[in-house]
Structure formats: structure tokens, C-alpha cells
Amino acid sequence: MIAAWDRAPASPVDPLVHRVETLAAPxxxxxxxxxxxxxxxxPVHARAVLAGGPRLVAAGWGARQRILADGRxxxxxxxxxxxxxxxxxxxxxxxxxxxxxxxxMIVADAAPLLDLETEAAGRDAPIxxxxxxxxxxxEALLAHQVTRLGRQTAYERMAHLLLExxxxxxxxxxxxxxxxxxxxxxxxxxxxxxxxxxxxxRTIQQLRRDGLVRMAGTRVTLVEPARLAALAxxxxxxxxxxxx
Length: 244
Known about the structure:
Blueprint: H1 14-23, H2 28-35, E1 41-44, E2 55-59, E3 62-67, E4 73-79, E5 84-85, E6 98-101, E7 105-109, H3 111-119, H4 126-151, H5 154-171, E8 179-181, H6 186-193, H7 197-209, E9 213-216, E10 219-222, H8 225-232, H9 237-240
Antiparallel strand pairs: 1-7, 2-5, 2-7, 3-4, 3-6, 8-10, 9-10
Helix pairs in contact: 4-5, 5-7, 5-8, 6-7
């Protein structure tokens, strides 16, 4: 397993800046203000609960999950570099789920980002527009997950999820090209997609046999991303948010 700090960005805010530049097209002074934030980061070991105040993920993978009374788990969404956790100036986080680390992570205190919004004047301030865009991205990811679980076949679900993870990592500046590192188990993928582990494994093998994906260890390559997107009816996040 790749330790989060082996691939840590130069600054914990870097993945967030990459996301913002791609999804929100902020003015240069807003980007400069984000880069100027002095965020205190800390390592988090795998299988830890991310509790407390607002956090910014700098490296590593986490998940928002719900554990049912009988021990079954539903992963609601993955938490990746550049994502904000428990970050909402208007309400406390919902109590129905927990955010946990799936791998070793590096997270930073995001309170200075909240302060930046508080100091800004009005809804049209650049930081307010940026945060609305990030909130829109969270809504888009929720729409993706509902569509996967509600209407797609296992084959479509897996293709759709791999495309989403790849896009999100590229947007955060963590990956580039047609490949990405997938440092989680098939059990985790199964709990995200509402499938058994056996069904998950068979679905991955079918995608490989069809020549759509290639997997070597934790490395995933989308061999034919356009064809994969067509069969999964995948809509990129940037397009969902109105970006060209």
C-alpha cells in the first residue's frame, strides 16, 4: 500500500487549488489567496475516523460510509485529495454517516478557509463563488452515486465509478493520462457499488477481457476511456458544472 506521505503535495492546499482552477475558473487573486493559506497538516493512519472540525484532504483516500445495525456497510462517496470534510459554515455535519480513512492520509485544518469566506463580503465574492462550485461538485457526485445504484448494471456501475475516480484524481492534479492508482480492495469497491465481492471480481475481470481496462497491482489504466464513458453514460463533472 502506498503511504499518503509518499505522494504528498508540496503544500496541502495544492490539490484544492487544482480542483478550483478546473471547476470554477477563479480570478488570479483568488488563486493567490488560496495558495497563501497557512494550513497545518497532519498524518492520519488507515481505518481512522476523521472527526472534529473541517478538514482538507491533501493525500490519501477516505470514504463517507454508513454501517447498518447488522454490520453491512454502504460507502456513500469516496474522499480524495482536494476534498473538504465537515466543511459547511451554515450547519453541522449530518450524523447518519462517518468519514473514515481507507488508506494512510494527510489532512489539514480547513478552518482558515472558512475564515476566508467569513471575511469576504457578499455572495458574489470570489471565495463564495468557489465554495458554491465545490458544493455543486458534491451534489454532482451524489447524482452519480444515485444513478449507479438505482439504474445501472454491475458492469455499468464499475465502469462509471472507475471513470469518476480517474476524473477526480486528474482534476486534483494527482494523476494524469489514462491511468490512476487504486489503493483500495475489491471489498471497498463492492460496498460502494452495492455488489457482492464475488460479483465485483467477475465484473472487473469482464472489463479486462473486453479490453476496456488494464490492471497491474494497484495501477488501473483506462484502455478505451471514450468507449467506457459511452457504455456507462458517464457525464464529466466539469460538464455537469457548466464548464466547457
